[in-house]
Write a structure and sequence with these properties.
2 domains; EC 1.1.1.85; 12 helices; 3-isopropylmalate dehydrogenase activity; IsoPropMal-DH-like_dom; binds manganese (II) ion; binds nicotinamide-adenine-dinucleotide; binds 3-isopropylmalic acid; Isopropylmalate Dehydrogenase; 3-isopropylmalate dehydrogenase; 12 strands
Amino acid sequence: TQSFRITLLPGDGIGPEIMAVTVDVMNQIGSQLDLSFDFQEALMGGAAIDETGSPLPEATLETCKQSDAVLLAAIGGYKWDTLPRHQRPETGLLALRAGLELFANLRPATILPQLVDASSLKREVVEGVDIMVVRELTGGIYFGEPKGIFQSETGEKRGVSTMAYTESEIDRIGRVAFETAQKRQGRLCSVDKANVLEVSQLWRDLITALAADYPDVELSHLYVDNAAMQLVRWPKQFDTIVTGNLFGDILSDAAAMLTGSIGMLPSASLGADGPGVFEPVHGSAPDIAGQDKANPLAQVLSAAMMLRYGLDQPAAADKIEAAVNTVLDQGYRTGDIMAEGMTPVGCKAMGDAILEALA
Ligand code: NAD
Ligand code: IPM
Ligand code: MN
């Protein structure tokens, strides 16, 4: 039996609901494929603030560092929205990414044929879409200095965030993106705002220079405003997209809607070595929390990404993805991916259907 240490961070809102479903799925896969998962649950986000005062307690980061992979659900909620920035759940998430040096965030947007009609776009636009967004995750305007709310000379307050990238930060995310594109259709689109921002000019220059090392990849560039428009106009033009932290955050939510719901999108956050963090692209959905309405599939598919990219268990990942496919074929739909005339199932019932499909 191969054994893996996995830290679970259920977090807030719908987090614990979708995590519970996913742990059941992992345990069933484990017993079928003779893998054993040693789950350690730890506090993170609002749940951690309530218990310890900190959104990412030292003990949680330590537990994560000691594990083979980290499975995170979602953090945040109204209750903590008015806390000072350093105490907010979101700050804990940024500290986790920085603490584990997870500079590369892979966010696949793949349209499953069963859900084509759940998209808000026309069938012919979304059918067959298969995009990988490679988002830089530990730099850019999320982390640049100076940052803060300062008193200006005129007595006015001045809010400051700084978009900055160093050569080495651009180089390492660029390499991940080119290598990702090599394993896919071999087309890479780099998204920036080089017509206005110096930081983007450096980004474009360095990504362009990197292309020489990857002659088999066809590189193109788009300004981010145009990229947002192209994503909804004709998403099939994209294979792999590489972009900075903020643009990647925004474009991946837009890409999510191509698939019918943000409740479908998993992600993998990876560093040079050490454990990765695997989490849905969506947040804690406080508007539907505690009502058994959440779509658990982004979380379940994040576990599949964990098995594939973090634990080198592609067979287990394949099985989970196949089971998700089966339940969608069988017509199971949570409210967010329901087409007209369908009856929604809850989060738990969706989980049970996956367990049955696995068995
Ligand atoms: P959100 O992604 O939580 O929700 C946006 C909308 O999508 C809501 O209507 C929600 O009900 C719906 N939705 C999201 N996930 C769903 C699912 N699995 N099934 C069905 N519907 C789903 O974004 P928001 O409302 O802007 O943010 C809520 C909180 O989550 C905030 O505190 C935010 O900071 C936080 N957040 C956390 C993460 C994370 O933990 N990685 C990501 C994004 C937002
Ligand atoms: C995401 C979220 C986070 C981000 C927030 C909650 C810090 O929106 O994972 O996409 O902006 O990266
Ligand atoms: Mn986001």
